[in-house]
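Journal club prep — side note

Before the paper discussion, L.F. wants everyone to see what a predicted structure for a comparable chain looks like in token form. Sequence:
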Amino acid sequence: MTEMIKTDLGGASPPALWDRVVRVSHWGIAAVVFGNEVITRGGSAAHVWIGWVGMILLVVRLIWGVTGPREARFSAFPPDPKAAVGHTRDLLAGRPRLYGSHNPAGAIMVYALWASMAVMTATGFYMSGPNPFGAAQQEAAVNSDDWSTLGTTDSESSAGDLVKMVHGTVANLILLLVSLHVGGVFIEGLVMRRNLILPMVFGDRKSGIAGSVTERNDSNA
């Protein structure tokens, strides 16, 4: 059960909002998305290696969602579309509530990004094959635009084309989700007069709150 608790910050040190695993995985996945969406060429050795890094970070974060501290666990931010709509309505009305973990709208975004990342890595590995060390083979496939030499055979070419299409579509979806996420962080920060980026950098709740009152989600795992 979720209980909203008001805490007077008057000189007391608030608890950490984001632990190190959450912060490292968050910024690491952000770097992976930026690297593979903006810098590397699809299918290149660097692209594939960055994809492996993204997969590892995602797996670590998902495991942490079960074993980590309360604020990091899935039970602290369950996907609830109705609550997300309500939070968005409250935000636009200028009276949003504070949460000890992701707010309901942020939670929906987190799960959407994780799901998209999972599809991206799965389809990417299908096209590139299971061997991340085959750099020369990967580069040759990219230069010839023939991914079938890596993850598929001639008899699977139709499936390979479908996977490639899904991979490209999800890549565009991730860019859209990231844009919405950044916009949401900016808008919520303005409305709440609260810096949402500093806590994700330093982990301390106090680093992002300007007022004297905060609330936290005290749901049990």
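L.F.'s comment for the group: The helical segments are 20-39, 45-67, 81-92, 104-128, 135-144, 157-192, 197-202. Keep this in mind when we get to the figures.
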